[in-house]
Design a protein that fits this description.
Chains A, B, C: This is Beta-galactosidase. 3 copies of one chain form a homotrimer. By secondary structure, chain A is α/β, with parallel strands linked by helices. Chain A has 4 domains: 5-149 and 222-382, Glycosidases (TIM Barrel), CATH 3.20.20.80; 153-215, no CATH class; 395-598, Rossmann fold (3-Layer(aba) Sandwich); 606-670, Sandwich (Immunoglobulin-like), CATH 2.60.40.1180. In chain A, the strands form 5 sheets. In chain A, strands 10, 11, 12, 13, 14, 15, 16, 17, 18, 19 and 20 form an 11-stranded mixed sheet that branches. In chain A, strands 5-4-3-2-1-9 form a 6-stranded parallel sheet.
Amino acid sequence: MNKIYFGGDYNPEQWPEQVWTEDYNYFKEAEIDTLTLGVFSWALIQKSEDTYDFTEMDEIMERARKEGKNVCMATGTAAHPPWMAHQFPDVTRVDFEGRKHKFGIRHNSCPNSPAYKRFSKKMAEKMAERYGDYENIIAWHINNEYGGSCYCEHCEAAFRVWLKKKYGTLDKLNEAWNTKFWSHIFYDWEEIVAPNALSEHYGRENVTAFQGITLDYMRFNSDSILNNFIAEKEVLKKATPAIPVTTNFMGMYRPLDYFKWAEHLDFISWDNYPPDMQSEARMALTHDLMRGLKKGKPFWLMEQTPSTTACRDFNAVKRPGVMRLWSYQAVAHGSDSVLFFQMRQSKGASEKYHGAVLDHSGKTDTRVCIETAKLGQELAKIGDAFTGAESKARIAIVFDWDSWWAVEISDGPSRYISYQKTMIDYYKALFHYNVDIDLISVDDDFSSYKLVIAPLLHMMKNNFDQRIEQFVQKGGTFLTTYLSGIVDENDNAILSERPGLLKKLMGIRIDETDTLHPDDKNYIELIADGWEGTYSCDTIFDLIQAKEAEAVAVYGDDFYKGMPAVTKNHFEAGEAWYIGAQVEAGFLKQLFGKILEDLAIQNPINAEEGIEIRSRFKDEEQYVFILNHAQKARKAVLDGVYRSLLDDRQYNGSGETIEVAAKDVVILKKM
Amino acid sequence: MNKIYFGGDYNPEQWPEQVWTEDYNYFKEAEIDTLTLGVFSWALIQKSEDTYDFTEMDEIMERARKEGKNVCMATGTAAHPPWMAHQFPDVTRVDFEGRKHKFGIRHNSCPNSPAYKRFSKKMAEKMAERYGDYENIIAWHINNEYGGSCYCEHCEAAFRVWLKKKYGTLDKLNEAWNTKFWSHIFYDWEEIVAPNALSEHYGRENVTAFQGITLDYMRFNSDSILNNFIAEKEVLKKATPAIPVTTNFMGMYRPLDYFKWAEHLDFISWDNYPPDMQSEARMALTHDLMRGLKKGKPFWLMEQTPSTTACRDFNAVKRPGVMRLWSYQAVAHGSDSVLFFQMRQSKGASEKYHGAVLDHSGKTDTRVCIETAKLGQELAKIGDAFTGAESKARIAIVFDWDSWWAVEISDGPSRYISYQKTMIDYYKALFHYNVDIDLISVDDDFSSYKLVIAPLLHMMKNNFDQRIEQFVQKGGTFLTTYLSGIVDENDNAILSERPGLLKKLMGIRIDETDTLHPDDKNYIELIADGWEGTYSCDTIFDLIQAKEAEAVAVYGDDFYKGMPAVTKNHFEAGEAWYIGAQVEAGFLKQLFGKILEDLAIQNPINAEEGIEIRSRFKDEEQYVFILNHAQKARKAVLDGVYRSLLDDRQYNGSGETIEVAAKDVVILKKM
Amino acid sequence: MNKIYFGGDYNPEQWPEQVWTEDYNYFKEAEIDTLTLGVFSWALIQKSEDTYDFTEMDEIMERARKEGKNVCMATGTAAHPPWMAHQFPDVTRVDFEGRKHKFGIRHNSCPNSPAYKRFSKKMAEKMAERYGDYENIIAWHINNEYGGSCYCEHCEAAFRVWLKKKYGTLDKLNEAWNTKFWSHIFYDWEEIVAPNALSEHYGRENVTAFQGITLDYMRFNSDSILNNFIAEKEVLKKATPAIPVTTNFMGMYRPLDYFKWAEHLDFISWDNYPPDMQSEARMALTHDLMRGLKKGKPFWLMEQTPSTTACRDFNAVKRPGVMRLWSYQAVAHGSDSVLFFQMRQSKGASEKYHGAVLDHSGKTDTRVCIETAKLGQELAKIGDAFTGAESKARIAIVFDWDSWWAVEISDGPSRYISYQKTMIDYYKALFHYNVDIDLISVDDDFSSYKLVIAPLLHMMKNNFDQRIEQFVQKGGTFLTTYLSGIVDENDNAILSERPGLLKKLMGIRIDETDTLHPDDKNYIELIADGWEGTYSCDTIFDLIQAKEAEAVAVYGDDFYKGMPAVTKNHFEAGEAWYIGAQVEAGFLKQLFGKILEDLAIQNPINAEEGIEIRSRFKDEEQYVFILNHAQKARKAVLDGVYRSLLDDRQYNGSGETIEVAAKDVVILKKM
């Protein structure tokens, strides 16, 4: 890999060939080297059950090869053609409301549809057969943004097969789902139906009468869609074993357990569409999560908009410099590509107003074209300096889809608890300190970390409790929160006072958890030596009895005034922290400030608020990214000798101050 | 009945027998004497169409008998087993949206399903046969929290039969429903379909094009479910005529006309799950309503949580003392039991986090266990002191399901009118004065009351207008509000100026009723002799012309400034009050203060705000309950000689002050 | 036409004949001369597939004739009878959610149902045959408030036929809908399904994946319903060619393209139910639109409530004088009738509380009866003074259903853009100046206007761009806004920088349009000579580059601070204005103040705020309506000699001041 890939989705089939020439002229100017082709080409290529017509795709591929472009080649199976829905109605989905869908939209295929399974595999086969020997294909892009769910009778049948494989007997299933509750004992596998608005749910996806079946259906649905991916991958690998295979993930996307998916991808790629203009911490977290899926390996930024989205209620344009800044943020966190959706704006349908590098006018003197070309030229200059480079974080945050699902489908104690929001809150508090962070799964090895954080780790599985005890025994610091440690892998309660399997490590006992409306505030008072201040808290309140643990903070109000809200337990060589309430951000910032200080984890470069600093390491070389997310210029004080990659400037020693303009980026190589 | 029953729902079938022993050890300590068994046991017992297996239930029953516990025995028909939904799909419901449900949740059976009717009756029969001779069964608990509605074709067919029986001819039905409106004349019974989102409703349950059919369907649905109850009751009574039969009601539950149900129950029982921590007046009202269903007979508190619910968006724990306080409140209002849901917390599914006496840890040194045991010991001490005791209220509030339904499904004048909220508003104003209140039906005898209040009594039926006129003629005081008196039992308008059939009694004429957004305030000015002040009003404004009546208050603003808003009519020996607008609480408080003063209805015990006082009478003895709902200690000044039941303290005369701690309770016997 | 028709909907079939006599007595007193009969009479008349029974309708008609009343005769086809839904299920609709409806509500027939098409045509035929020779029928009233939509298989099939007729080939359709996007290429007409929640839509009617198919379905649906109208009209015209035919429109009603419908109506009529008490500008706009549908011809006000609606969440009564004021407003804007819904209030079902002239009491000394009679007497006095009179506006606002649809179903740039709200905002700014305004279609001739305004004219069709250029070249002033000019008739983007086909005329270039949450405000600064002030703006912000145009205002904040927000382009003899952001009302008021001044368009009568002035012209005579919408008396200064029609007072010269009481009306004839 001789440089960071630059380019993105390109759909020339929507345009006459004269436009292609305009496009390629600009690509050259902007150093665009990589094109993702054919993402929604199914109806174009497969015109009927037996007819595949590659005429147009051949022209597109030939032109890309002729122009010397890398191709990320899609299999095109993310939206089935109309004829398929018409002739093979099983390809469409039944939704959560139990409604059978007709043809439309995209990402519309039932993962267990016999027709879809047959045709999608065949399509991948045909694509590999036709284009497998194009030496400019650098990756297969299977499907697109896999997701959603289906509740049709094919899924229902496949669910029963999945359950039989998992549980073996109905007795075990009945035990796992606790079916003596509410007269739910199953005596025949055929009695099991998909859990949705017509069966176990009270109208909403998160409100189920039976967590066990709903949780298993979420797992089954993720697995079903993964099987679609694997089926295509197998035929591609058979035809072209050397071409790496991916599919574009969607970051913190709840329906798919990406940790389970990751092993099947040759590399991770994802699409970054943050919800607003203040998303830098959220994006950082998500990049780290995507990198963590494959234990730190670089990933691809497969999509981002060069300017604006279209599908939101409102769609702000990216401010000057922001597209470049966010592109480098992806790179700083481990991306080896900067790819856009899309190269030329569609002229009709629902992405007509979605931003693109080239807009409806085709003019190249637009702000977007100019900024894109500048970035392309920079990336060309950077070359392969840090492609393949990895991170060396000493902090890990545990991210777990099962806990996410379990905590959000739970009846009680509070529906105001959001897994994603909580992860962002904890990440943000650390983000402030410019420390490198890995996002890991519960199964990963903790030994390389000094600090492991697991907010809302509701579910205990694979001996996590024992493994984390060992980590702390050996000197590690572990931190967790309310609602952690208290259910097993079937979402049944650990039969113990809370925090369940973590109570020994935490050295506390919790009999009661109060929950109130988020507007009803309590507060905590820091009482341990060296701590001070009061902070508001809300939503959830564990009534902690400190046993072996020390109370760091206590509640300031209500009948549990004076009871511990935050505790720290010395556990052999290490420490275990428990946060019993949803406390305001300022507390988390103070908390991590102290912990990082104790653990001597800190960034040697001192920077003003708004600056983000991340490092990548390659062949013993360290590359430091200084990103200014603020609206104004910000300063950082360097700690050694560095060379700036973009302008070749040399920084000659510790204490030297560097000023980074608003939204600007500095990339330093440590000398 | 030798004491107040204490205990609650118990589901040992979800646990191994060693846990049962732990449970019974605690029951003994806590003086728990009554267990409700088998509520959701259908799937456990009936394993197929023809197989009933009582093995586990036998063990449970034997143990309860051996341990000397009273059993409230459920028939278990509140949730059908999965095999039944699979093999007899007619047992599941079609919802308001017209969607046929599959298996899931609970309370899930169509009341007119042939299979459900057959199997539920058979189940009751089997239970009676198996356990009917257990002398420790103190009641049959049929089904559980009956409710909901169904719109399937079986219901549709049964609805037509119900209509034929009610109307006899289509001409009468067409007249009742006013079907010349909007081309709705029915010429064949088969043309009538269930009114829901696919027929007469605009998406929402309260928004119908035809009030007549919707109202009749609500009545039909209530009757259909009542028929399920009666069918089970009949087989139980045949087998065990001596065991009283009940089912647990849900307080102010709109779908079922409990006044119509009550005659079929041997005693009333209900489940008390108030929406928030400030619900004392609401709970008081509801207890009074439950007591009123059987004309003042004691009822059972069948369920309450000892600590927290799970199904709400957030679920606060009951504060220290609150469980005990609310238990005694139930008793003060006529309950002869204090029962919980449930004895031991479920380990999985949607009630995993619902509070229970024994939680997942099984520890008995929790706050909940300690408070429960203390209460159990107190109740044991109290014994049968006032079991069976009744109230002697001189105030009645008329509660009417038909008016509730009619006023809330009405198109116009305002969808911001809530029957339940209005009842609570009026009750709250009286609650302040610590006067005993009965909740009665329109059919009840008024002669024992001095004051009858009927807010929102929209529908006139069974000569209510004439009977209430007689009540007033003889010296009674009657008070009603906007929207009262103006439709007949088919929800057709009384062809008269408003308040329709009550206009003569009220001595007023209303041609126009203005309604505004609740945020748009007007105000009233009190103008009658002895009255003063202004109060804000909103939402609805009757433009009253006082004829025989006197204007007590007039509007302060808008084009009807100066027109009466509140009137009083001297009608022979009595008085009739009309409240024409939704006025703020302060006015209602002043209003009832004056009326109670005039009628010389007052509690001889003078208490500070926050104290509730209620009395029960048994064999000429009076028991006075002083309940402190406030967050601080409050005082009351006694009017005579009393003995305190819980601490045997004697109070020796009028004027003595008693201080009641926050959330504490004093029970006095008048000597 | 010898006077303004006065009366309205009358449903005596719901009442016994003795009530009819009461009604007619009042009609006489109130000078009510016109009754709309039989609107929902289908079930009454057609009792089965083959049985028509006119007994009751004959009596009704005879009585009306005997009493000398004009009849607006309905065909009664707006709600099919229950037997029809039962025996011919294809008459009911399938809704947007894909749910097949059963019998209920009204306006419930599928427009492409074979049964409905057959029976509705037959019903019109029968009505014409039975009553066609009643000389007192002054109009046929087909159906009632046509509207809604259906997605059944009959509609789906008819949609394919409609598409074949429109596009001829699938290639053209695929091109129009841009189906290479998202794998949507259709190879067989049968593959096309109706776009709804089960196919192309994401749950909401405005959120579609394919604008092309959704837009065509909206057009198809409007056409389908229009075909129902035409089918009835044809049989009526055959039987009674001399009787004019109408149907009652609903003002700014999105589902039906009334400009396309208008040519098929002999005259326009509409139902005026404004959403609140501050709707004078909105109603004025809507009256102007209804008049504009037939190029200025007078219309009928077919319905308004005399007092209150019933279907709203709350339903305020019309304040004293308001019913009269709004009646005259309709007349001032071109109505030749003042008709109510309805004459006597229904006693049951969903319009039981809808206001009527005669209420449930039947008393005639109510405020409503008194105000109605007073108005009737005034209209009798006015006679035919200005019936048939037209307006002479020099300002036109372009209203376009296609743009309305396209802009609101668009994905991006902002779902906060409302076509209707924007039209009202621009109209309101002009309304302040008491200038006559025409609402016109894009196809109308602009030559009689000095100023043409086209807010949100998203879609360019029928050479609008060229025709409006010619208008400006010849000296006209044209004003448009953001989102105008940028899609073709298939909603595909004009391949150009914005404003697309209007860019030459506007002399500007727009590469980017920012959209933000409506709460995020920016502001504009007026910088051109003679302009001053700053105004807040929000929601949408075009980043304008002024080319030939002059910047009148620039943005005050954000990265586009200083870029033009409002521009003016001198284009040969005329001027072209472009408004690039949603700016607050104060700006539009200043803007139009200047433009009207420049164009010397102004009302010679100078009036205080709250006064509306409109004129009608007949046979060279001018009638001036002065309407005081304010809560207090307001003054106007006359410019010449006038005679007041209602009180015969003479105003003798320029400068004379006239005071109009709150809610009062003065009608002047210019002498």
